[in-house]
Design a protein that fits this description.
- This protein is α+β, with helices and mostly antiparallel strands.
- It has a domain at about 5-120: Jelly Rolls, CATH 2.60.120.
- It has helices spanning about 5-15, 20-30, 85-90, 110-120, 125-150, 150-160, 170-180, 185-194, and strands at about 30-35, 40-45, 50-55, 60-65, 70-80, 80-85, 100, 105-110.
- The chain has a 4-stranded antiparallel beta sheet. A 4-stranded antiparallel beta sheet has the order 2-7-4-5.
- A hairpin with a 5-residue loop joins strand 4 (about 60-65) and strand 5.
- Helix 6 packs across helix 7 (about 170-180) and helix 7 packs across helix 8.
- It starts with 6 loop residues before the first helix and ends with a helix.
- The mean pLDDT is about 95.
Length: about 190
Amino acid sequence: MPDIDVSLLLKNIAKHITLTASEETHFVSLLKSQKLKNKAFLLKEGAICKHSAFVLSGCLKSFTVDRNGFERILHFAPSDWWMADMYSLISQNGAILNIQALMPTSIVLLSKQDQETLYYQVPKFERFFRIILEKSLVAHQRRILDGLSLSAEQRYLNFRQKYQDVVDYLPQKEIASYIGVTPEFFSKMKKNML
């Protein structure tokens, strides 16, 4: 792997498991670094997701495009977040999501194959990725319930809390898509909230 600072990733992992120096070195040896330009795709719908991505800097979004050509954003991954199309990564079928950089973004990738090998070589990584998946499942469930029961204003306030590090530099249309409203409605809503 090229010389890149992975201390943020190691801190992320240390929140859940403790690695020895040799385990850290082995883990880092499996990573591949990548830099994405603004609007560059990490994954396109239909391709097979072969890696989990950890964002070192910048921001990714995952989205689908509906039959009318509108983007439906599912998640953002700012610095210190993981992202993948979990359906495609696990099943190795075509992706149902697009993953795209919202700005110049630096990531590290862990392949599905290396992740599986890591489970045997350093079993505590199974615990780490289980915790990450559990948190992701809870977030998905919360997002669905919020979409069914909360007003657009409350969904926006929840968004601001969840993504407080990036909310001020994300385009309004991206935020509108995430909370499930049109950009025009979002603009009026924000004006009324002020």
